[in-house]
Amino acid sequence: MINSFYTKFAKLVVHYSVEIKKGDRVLIEGPTFAKELIQALYLETLSAGGHPLVMPELEGINELLLKNASEEQLLYLHDTIKSTNKNFDSIITIGGEFNTRNLSLIDPKRIAKQRGSPDRTAFMQEFEDRMSKKLLKWIGIPFPCHAYAQEANMDLFSYFDFVEKALLLDKEKPIDEWTEIQIKQDKIVQKLKGSKIIKIIGEDTELELSVEGRTWENCCGKLNLPDGEVYTGPVETYTKGHIRFTYPGIYAGREIENICLEFKDGVVVSATADKGEDLLKEILEIENANRIGELAIGTNYGITQFTKNMLFDEKMGGTIHLALGMGFQETGSENKSGIHWDILKDMRPKGSKILIDGQLIYEEGKWKI
Asked: Which residue in 93, 98, 142, 290 has a CA-CA distance of 20 to 30 Å to 311?
C-alpha cells in the first residue's frame, strides 16, 4: 500500500499542476529512493488516462561522469535525453539528493563546462521554447529525504511536516487552496502589468532594472510545488547598480556565501564572494550567465526558514531572487544560456524596499499594493 501522503501529493500534481488528460505521454524522473512517490505518480497518471514512463536516477552516476569522463564525453548529451522535449506532453521531475555535498570535490571548471556545453544550452532553449508555446508541461517537486532534512537542520519527521505544510497537503482540499492562491496572485500581477523601471534598495544594495515590455507571471503550483512567487524577465541590456545576496547561492551542491554583484549595461562587471568565489567566477564564464534572466518576488509566507533548497527558499515571503542565465520566453526574456541559477536576498530588514516607476510597492518584506 502506498503512503497516503504520496497519494495525496500525486493527485495534486497530476490533476492540478500538469492536468494530465487521456492520451498524454508523461515522463516521471527522479532518484530511485523516491520509489513510493514515483509509484503514486505512476498510478495517478494511469487513472487520468495518461501513458507514464519512469526514468530513475541511480546514486552516484553524475559524480562518476564528472570525475572520469573525457572532455568529449563531458560535453556529450545522449539523443534519448534530447528527445524528451518532443516525445512527452508532460514531465514530472522529482528533486531529491543522496548527498548534497556529492560534487564538492569536483573541479568547478568541469561542472561549468558540462552545464554550459552547446548541446545542453540548445536542449535548455528547446525546453523553454516548447514550454512557452504550451507544447510541454513541466513540474518540479520535492521528495522529503534525509539529505534535505540535514541541510535544513531538521530530523526527517520534522522535515516531512515542513514539506507537507509548504505543499498545503495538510489541508483537506489542497487543489482548492492552490486555486485560491492563483486568484490572489493574479491581482498582484495585474498591478505590476505595464511597469517599466524597478529599483531595489536593501542592505548593500541599490539596483535598477528595466522591465519595459516584459510580462509578469503568476507562480501558483503549475511549474513548482511548493510555489508562491511572481516573476518577470528584465531587459538584458539595462541593469545597473549593485546587490549583495544575504543567503548563500547553492550551485552543484556547493555554497557560495555573501555574493556581491555589480552591473553595468545589463552585464556583471564585478563579482565577489566570501566563500566559493572560484566557482562563482566559473559560473559567470558560461555563455550569458553574466546577465539576469529572471527577477522574482517570493509570496509564500508559510515558508519561514532557509533550508538550502531553492525549490522552497525562493518562494519564501519577504525575499526576492535573481536568476543568472536563461530567461523565460513567456516573460519576453531574450537571454539564452545553459544555466538558470537563482540567488536569494532577504528584503525584510529595515529600509528594504522596491519601487516601480517611482512608486513604493514593497517595503520590508510586505506588499504595499
From this structure: 290
Q: 73 in a domain, yes or no?
A: yes
196, pLDDT greater than 80: yes
- pTM (2 d.p.): 0.87
If one counts the domains in the chain, the total is: 2
Give the other-Cβ count within 10 Å of 152's Cβ: 20
Any domain includes 342 = yes
Distance CA 325, CA 336 (A): 7
User: How many angstroms separate the CA atoms of 13 and 226, rounded?
Assistant: 11
What residues does 357 pair with on adjacent strands?
none
Range of the domain at 233: 191-367
Residue 81 domain flag: yes
Tell which phi-psi region holds residue 89, choosing left (phi > 0), alpha (psi between -120 and 50) or beta. Answer: alpha
- The residue whose grid cell reads 516548447 is 130
